[in-house]
Amino acid sequence: MDRVTQFNVLAKSGRAVEVCGDVDVMILDKTGTITYGNRIASEFLPVNQQMWEKLIVAAYMSSIYDDTPEGKSIVRLAKQMYINELPKDIDGTYKPFTAETRMSGIITNEISVFKGAPNSMINLVKQQQGNIPLNIESICMDVSSKGGTPLIVIENNVMLGVIYLKDVIKDGLVERFAELRKMGIETVMCTGDNALTAATIAKRSGC
């Protein structure tokens, strides 16, 4: 047990150390373990150029009361990209993200704006008899193929475009995973992200 402390490992019992010798599969969470976990808004991708400004404003409005790192980064990017002044306060009802809805946004007397996971947003628009832009899935797939997380933005049930959330794989993981495989240990990544993003991160990290 004293030896493992040299590697910054705190073992609670000798039995725990012995069991580690029998491990042949290691399961790791993606966000914060394989990646740094500080996903930030990198780009706004409108369904067409006419929606460019509306996408930025709607993304901002849906995130102004979002205290998550992702939400704050969306607000920052919107302020950088939008040439006009954005409202500092919005009078409305904020709807926070939940595991059930997988979306967040705000409802005012005039409009409702939401951002969220592609499947959730597509289902919401379909339920309200809205139209799905032909290119929205390809935009989301392009973001996912780069290892990013796409968030679709809607205003009054109209899809405006996608927010590209970017995450970064931690340094040195490819080599670490290669070492584990040489030791006969299989690595498995688990995530609640979409399948294409997960596959891309797994491939790039060597997991």
Fold and architecture overview:
Its EC number is 3.6.3.12. This protein has a domain of 127 residues: Calcium-transporting ATPase, cytoplasmic domain N, CATH 3.40.1110.10. Helices cover 38% and strands 22% of the residues. The protein has eight helices and eight strands; from the N terminus they run H-E-H-E-H-H-E-E-E-H-H-E-E-H-E-H. The protein has a six-stranded antiparallel β-sheet with strand order 2-7-6-5-4-3, with helices on both faces. A two-stranded parallel ribbon has the order 1-8. Helix 3 packs antiparallel against helix 4 and helix 6 packs parallel to helix 8. The radius of gyration is 21 Å and the shape is elongated.
Q: What brief labels describe this structure?
A:
207 residues, alpha+beta, Calcium-transporting ATPase, cytoplasmic domain N, six-stranded antiparallel sheet, two-stranded parallel ribbon, 8 helices, 22% strand, elongated
Task: Give a concise summary.
This protein is an alpha+beta fold and 207 residues long. The protein contains eight helices and eight strands.
Topology:
Blueprint: H1 14-20, E1 25-29, H2 30-34, E2 40-46, H3 52-63, H4 69-81, E3 93-95, E4 103-107, E5 112-116, H5 118-127, H6 136-145, E6 149-155, E7 158-166, H7 173-182, E8 186-190, H8 195-205
Parallel strand pairs: 1-8
Antiparallel strand pairs: 2-7, 3-4, 4-5, 5-6, 6-7
Helix pairs in contact: 3-4, 6-8
Pfam family, one: Hydrolase
Keywords: ATP-binding, Cell membrane, Hydrolase, Ion transport, Magnesium, Membrane, Metal-binding, Nucleotide-binding, Phosphoprotein, Potassium, Potassium transport, Translocase, Transmembrane, Transmembrane helix, Transport
Organism: Staphylococcus aureus
